């Protein structure tokens, strides 16, 4: 188990705030799901986070409106706020999908060059007037042409779909997934807490890449893009590490 | 007949050199076809050209390598040189076609902006990096995407396929074709020389537009582009004015 956690954590310690978002997003996304402080501490302890750092991050998450808490006797119970749940759900198709979000890319040609890339943009601009998107055509001032999967897309375009840093992240993460696959074996046999820890670290590692990846089909990515392989490996591993029920987790703590 | 010639000539007198190229291209494109000086003079006289201007233009055409001549007794016989015939034949699909040269346009995206338009270019560049062509894709450094006929193409692109001058020329020429259609009647009854004069003026008027028109399908032209209508009207009129044989023309002169 230590090897698995080492493998998933890599040489960086994860940002606590962000890792807690993943914990809630993976284990407590349902409307009524709540995590006790005790369970959170047990999970984060196995992920080698310091209790003090977890306490600070929980406080910040509450202040930021991601989670809310209540006391029930000696227990603190935490759950996603409606807005936190909405954001979690919005991200989940990108994180848990087994295949690329779409098979179809569209070319967009605009007569205006005021087309910066950004988080809000659904178009990846690779020239001042030309971009890629998966959205169906709307604006009559723009030319929209489909790019079927068998279209040869030149390298200079693909290279602007994802930068070297993202390429490297995907390559490194794939190597860790291969090692994790070996370590897990074909029929992993973990308790609920261990399964939850591995799932969360797996989702968290992939989430960093998946949410930075433009929502475009794999055929417009550079030839050495490994994100598609990561995506299907993550999906396969998550199937082998099925999400434990909350009462299983509580029983595991009590044991 | 005078009305017809007026209608075809419009208010501009044609450039003699260029009109002679049309005469040879329409009436004497076959390998062995020759036109006598007498026949040329008869035709150009009906087109209201001055004999002196015709003599000068014939001399220049010979100097430019378009035509060659020989004497046969009292006659001068003129024919296209092999190179003149090649150029005539190259232009003829654009001039005589009943329909647009192709149904399929391709978008080309280049990573270099050194893409000037010009006679030699087979691509109409409407942005520094983006152009239209009918040629099948070749260069792996460029993205090529087909533009099917039902694609909505924005006006700012269409407007760069042909400029206002060409739009106006096509509109004016169509108006003359409508008038010519009326004047000719459904079953025109002209002698060989008259038929030849009308054909040549018709081809000549259309040739000025056809050879300036980018070789692209009509659906990427501006909505008020009348060139497609001109093209089919010209083809229909030429069918009603079938090309006379050279011996018919000679017989007509002798008559």
Question: N-to-C terminal Cα separation of chain A, in Å?
Answer: 18 Å
Assembly type of the chains comes to homodimer
**Total of DSSP H or I helical runs spanning 4+ residues of chain A:** 10
Lateral strand order in the biggest sheet of chain A: 5-6-4-7
Mean pLDDT of chain A: 90
Written description of the protein model:
Two copies of one chain form a homodimer. The first copy, chain A, is α+β, with helices and mostly antiparallel strands and 255 residues long. Helix content of chain A is 50%, strand content 13%. In chain A, the strands form two sheets. In chain A, strands 5-6-4-7 form a four-stranded antiparallel beta sheet. In chain A, a hairpin with a 2-residue loop joins β5 (124-127) and β6. In chain A, α1 runs antiparallel to α7 (164-184) and α1 (2-9) packs parallel to α8. The longest helix of chain A has 21 residues, at 164-184. The A-B interface holds A 107, 109, 111, 127, 129-130, 137, 140-147, 151-154, 156-157 and B 107, 109, 111, 127, 129-130, 137, 140-147, 151-154, 156-157.
């Amino acid at each position: 188990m230590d090897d698995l956690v080492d493998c998933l954590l890599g040489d960086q310690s994860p940002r606590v705030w962000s890792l807690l978002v993943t914990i809630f997003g993976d284990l407590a996304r349902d409307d009524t799901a709540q995590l006790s402080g005790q369970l959170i501490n047990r999970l984060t302890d196995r992920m080698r986070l310091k209790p003090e750092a977890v306490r600070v991050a929980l406080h910040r998450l509450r202040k930021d409106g991601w989670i809310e808490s209540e006391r029930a006797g000696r227990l603190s119970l935490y759950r996603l706020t409606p807005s936190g749940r909405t954001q979690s759900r919005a991200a989940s198709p990108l994180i848990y999908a087994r295949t690329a979000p779409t098979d179809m890319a569209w070319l967009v040609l605009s007569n205006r060059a005021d087309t910066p890339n950004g988080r809000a943009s659904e178009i990846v601009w690779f020239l001042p007037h030309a971009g890629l998107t998966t959205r169906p055509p709307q604006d009559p001032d723009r030319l929209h042409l489909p790019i079927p999967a068998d279209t040869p897309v030149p390298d200079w375009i693909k290279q602007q779909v994802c930068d070297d840093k993202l390429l490297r992240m995907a390559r490194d993460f794939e190597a860790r997934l291969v090692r994790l696959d070996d370590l897990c074996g074909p029929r992993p046999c973990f308790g609920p807490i261990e399964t939850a820890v591995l799932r969360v670290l797996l989702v968290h590692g992939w989430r960093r890449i998946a949410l930075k990846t433009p929502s475009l089909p794999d055929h417009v990515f550079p030839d050495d893009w490994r994100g598609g392989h990561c995506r299907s490996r993550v999906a396969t591993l998550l199937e082998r590490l099925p999400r434990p029920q909350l009462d299983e987790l509580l029983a595991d703590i009590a044991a």
